Every structure is written in structure tokens, then in C-alpha cells.
From TrEMBL:
GO terms for molecular function: exopolyphosphatase activity. It comes from Methylomarinum roseum. SUPFAM superfamilies: Actin-like ATPase domain (SSF53067), HD-domain/PDEase-like (SSF109604). Keywords: Cell membrane, Hydrolase, Membrane. This is Exopolyphosphatase. The gene is ppx. Homodimer. It holds the Pfam family Ppx-GppA_III. GO terms for biological process: polyphosphate catabolic process.
Length: 498
């Protein structure tokens, strides 16, 4: 546990339709909501035909983030979690935008996969409900994607993310607010087509209750109940009446629905089409709406990290077991890594840096998972699995960093692999990788005990000093160190040993 716990925690969700911020006070391990901020930015509407985020939308988004940044600017780094979803996953120029956005917020932004988004959404719903149904079906409509999850208690065991959202569907089928029965039918059909491969998985027979979790679903529920078409959330009959009403209108301005805000109006019909398609495809009759969503799930994930229950460590352990890694070897590597870290505690990349230690431990556990594919070039196979797998709790940046360390833990040491990592990892990941390389080298004989040695690492100079005559009695290690010195020399690092 960190020496000082934060008094407040914040979660920021940079969605494709809205940006949300949730701030909670933290006292004795208990959370209390103290502030919520929400702005309709409609990031997805700013994607041009080349999947680039246009300047006008970027300016609108950055203005919002500057306001958010003022609220959380003085928060300690470990007390803030910020995630970007579908549009920031999709935009080709997202990297440049994220750099500006991080400056406005004063904290790093993590891009998460659709599956990770689904897991966090379920966490948010599970922690906001008192219900203990055996199996819950949860649906969340974003601006650019819709997530479907089945889980029980606080564990999501079935997760999917589909490329359809209230902004993208509204832009595609109801451009400039124009409505028609034909367009709504096309939107519904596309929704059903996208759902078809997952119809059996999420069918009504596989869960006990349906829960909606998003602004779109809240708006639909509020409208249907205010119109008197339902008295219990979103019902199939109420949805049919809403669709019939939409079919009578030629433009969204004619909808005039109770409880429908002017902000929600431009993307409302796209959301209705997705919900209608989902009810039809999966046989849903009734859905309640939860207050919990992605940001609430992010808060609880953040809480786990603060109290040393990081879901990423559980994920790493599960994946290592799945690929049947040599646990004893991984444990030996971790012990040697800590032996090195104790001596390098003054290094700028390692001073009081819990994250560096975590990534080295995860790399030690997962560096050999590629051997399940082939021993030859196994480090490349390991890196591919890490980079492209669904790793619960990990952002895309997390996976990229971990994959880079594992990819470079043996053979050629190329500095170019680190240049695209976000700060400060572009500077520190080479240091972590060299530590892992040395640990792996010293445990090439997987059953031998680690030798005592002293290590110094300053700038690009690494010095190893073994006990007297130890290297003379370990010719294989001596030869490996000579080869390692040549690999590192190509990247202008100087390894000296005696």
C-alpha cells in the first residue's frame, strides 16, 4: 500500500458522444460522490472520411478538457484514471490529439479496447446495483460502439463490443435530423446484422435480468415512462410505441418527446434503432437502467490499484497459468530483478516507481508464453500475444509497453522499438528491458542459484562486479555477457563486467 492514500479519486471517460468526470472522496476505504461533470462533445462526429479527427472537434474537446483539468490538476497521479474509447481507438491522428489532451488534463490518458471497456462497464453496473440475479445482461450504447456483457455478481464472463453507436448511427441514417420509416428500418436491420454472430451467446435464455447503462438508454427509459408507454424501465411494448411515434415524424424537431433534452435530441434516434434491434435480436422484453457505467467501473478499478488489488496482476497470473509457464523460473527472475532494483534505487527511472517494478514483474511472468507457439523466436510470439490479447485491466498503452519489453528481452536490442511509447516510458523502458535481459541471462541455467554481484547503471554505462573468480568458474555466463555487451553496444550502451 502506498505511504499516503489519496483523499479523493477521479475517473474521466472520454467517450465518443460525451466526456464524463466523476470525483469521489475516499475515507476508510469508502467512496462518496462529491462531483460530476459531463459535456456533450460528440467526438465521433468529428471523424472525416479518412478517419482523422477534424480541427473543429479537437478544439471543442480540448476546451472541455481544460475545464476538467482545472478540477483535477492538483490530484496525485495515482488517484486519477482517464480512458479513451471507440473514437480515440479509431482516429488515425489520435496520438497527436492525446498529447494535447494530456497537457490540458495534467494526467495521462489510456486508450482501452472494446472488451476492456465492456469489463469496466460491468464493474460500474455491478457496484451500483443491489440485485443479486444469477446472471445479468448489461448493454451500454456509446457514441461509436455498443458493449454487451453477461456477468454474475461482480465478474463479467461474456463480453463483446460492436461498432455501432448513437452518434455513428444517427450520422449514417438520420443525417441533419431527417427521419423516415425506411431509414429507421435500415438502421434496425444493420443493428441486427451486427448482432447476428452473437445472437446465441446473448440470447434471453442465458441471463436472468437485462440492465442498460448509458445516456442513450437512460434517455429512452425516461421518454417511454414520461409518455406513459411503460411504468417499468424500457419494455418491448413501450419501445414499439416509441418507434411508431418516430415513424410519424419527418425530422427530429417534430419528435417533441417529454423528458428528451435538446442535447440528446441529435443522437436519440440512432440510439433507439440500436436498442430496438437488440430487443428484437435477443428476445428482450424488459430492461431496467442503472446509474453505474464506465466511469464508476474505472473508480473501482482505481481503488483496487490503490489498495494493492490490481486486476492487471490477476490477469498476468491467469495468462501465465493458461500458457503453462515455468513458475519457478519466473519467480527466480523476479527475485533477481528485485536484487538489481535494490542496488539501482537512485536511478531516475526506478526511484519510488511502483509502475516500473510492476511491469518488470509482469514481463518476468509472461516473457516465455510464446513458447507455446514455437521455441524459435519465442520472444516475438510472446510480444504478439501480449500486444493483441484481451488483457483485463490493461490499457493499449500498458500492453504496448509490456510487449516492447518482452519483445526486446533477448537477441537484438533496438532503440527504435521504444520511440513510440508514451512518456516517460520512451526513456525508461530501455532501462527496464536491460534489467530483464540481465536477469534472464543470469538464469540461463534454470536450476542454478543467482550469484552475488554488484551493479551500477549510470547514463548508458552498466557495470557488473561478481564475486572473485566466479566468472572464471562460469564460462557460459562469461560468453553470454560478452555477446550481451555486443548487442547493447549497437544501441550505444556500454556493458562492463568482471
Amino acid at each position: 500500500m502506498p505511504q499516503k492514500l489519496p483523499s479523493s479519486v477521479a475517473a474521466v471517460d472520454l467517450g465518443s458522444n460525451s466526456f464524463h468526470m466523476l470525483i469521489c472522496s475516499l475515507k476508510d476505504g469508502k467512496l462518496q460522490t462529491v462531483d460530476r461533470l459531463k459535456e456533450m462533445v460528440r467526438l465521433a462526429s468529428g471523424l472525416d472520411e479518412h478517419k482523422n479527427l477534424d480541427e473543429k472537434t479537437q478544439r471543442r474537446a480540448l476546451a472541455c478538457l481544460e475545464r476538467f483539468g482545472q478540477r483535477i490538476g492538483n490530484f496525485p497521479p495515482h488517484s486519477v484514471g482517464i480512458v479513451g474509447t471507440n473514437t480515440l481507438r479509431t482516429a488515425k491522428n489520435s496520438r497527436k490529439f492525446i498529447a494535447k489532451a494530456e497537457k490540458a488534463l495534467g494526467h495521462p490518458i489510456h486508450i482501452i479496447s472494446g472488451i476492456e471497456e465492456a469489463r469496466l462497464i460491468y464493474q460500474g453496473v455491478a457496484n451500483s446495483l443491489g440485485s443479486h440475479a444469477n446472471n445479468r445482461f448489461v448493454m451500454d450504447i456509446g457514441g461509436g460502439s455498443t458493449e454487451y456483457i453477461i456477468g454474475s455478481n461482480d465478474i463479467a464472463h461474456t463480453k463483446e463490443s460492436l461498432h455501432m453507436g448513437c452518434v455513428t448511427f444517427s450520422n449514417l441514417f438520420f443525417k441533419d435530423g431527417v427521419l423516415s420509416k425506411k431509414a429507421f428500418k435500415k438502421a434496425t436491420l444493420l443493428g441486427e446484422q451486427r448482432l447476428e454472430p452473437f445472437q446465441q451467446k446473448f440470447n434471453r435464455h442465458n441471463w436472468d435480468e437485462a440492465i442498460g447503462a448509458s445516456g442513450s438508454l437512460k434517455a429512452i427509459s425516461n421518454v417511454i415512462q414520461a409518455a406513459g408507454w411503460s411504468n417499468n424501465g424500457i419494455t418491448r411494448d413501450g419501445l414499439e410505441q416509441l418507434v411508431a411515434h418516430i415513424g410519424k415524424c419527418k425530422h427530429i424537431d417534430e419528435l417533441k418527446l417529454p423528458e428528451l433534452s435538446s442535447e440528446r435530441l441529435p443522437v436519440f434516434t440512432g440510439g433507439v434503432a440500436i436498442v430496438y434491434a437488440t430487443f428484437r435480436a435477443l428476445g428482450i422484453e424488459q430492461m431496467t437502467v442503472s446509474d453505474g457505467a464506465l466511469r464508476e467501473g474505472l473508480i473501482h478499478d482505481l481503488l483496487g490499484r490503490i489498495y494493492n488489488h490490481d486486476i492487471r496482476s490477476e490477469t498476468t497470473k491467469t495468462i501465465a497459468e493458461h500458457y503453462r509457464i515455468d513458475k519457478q523460473h519466473a519467480d527466480n527472475l523476479k527475485q533477481t530483478i528485485h536484487y538489481i532494483l535494490q542496488q539501482l534505487s537512485d536511478h531516475p527511472c526506478l526511484t519510488d516507481n511502483k509502475a516500473s517494478i510492476q511491469f518488470l514483474e509482469w514481463a518476468a511472468e509472461l516473457h516465455e508464453i510464446g513458447q507455446g507457439i514455437a521455441h524459435s523466436q519465442y520472444h516475438k510470439h510472446s510480444a504478439y500475444i501480449i500486444e493483441n490479447g484481451d488483457f483485463a485491466g490493461f490499457s493499449r498503452q500498458d500492453q504496448s509497453l509490456l510487449a516492447t519489453i518482452v519483445r526486446t528481452h533477448r537477441k537484438k536490442f533496438s532503440m527504435s522499438r521504444f520511440t513510440n511509447l508514451p512518456e516517460p516510458w520512451d526513456q525508461c523502458a530501455p532501462v527496464l528491458t536491460i534489467i530483464l535481459r540481465l536477469a534472464v541471462l543470469l538464469h540461463r541455467n534454470r536450476h542454478s542459484v543467482r550469484p552475488d554481484f554488484e551493479i551500477a547503471f549510470s547514463g548508458k554505462r552498466i557495470q557488473l562486479h561478481f564475486s572473485e573468480q566466479w566468472l572464471d568458474q562460469a564460462p557460459l555466463t562469461h560468453a553470454d555477457l560478452e555477446l550481451e555487451a555486443k548487442y547493447l553496444q549497437a544501441a550505444k550502451f556500454k556493458l562492463e563486467f568482471r
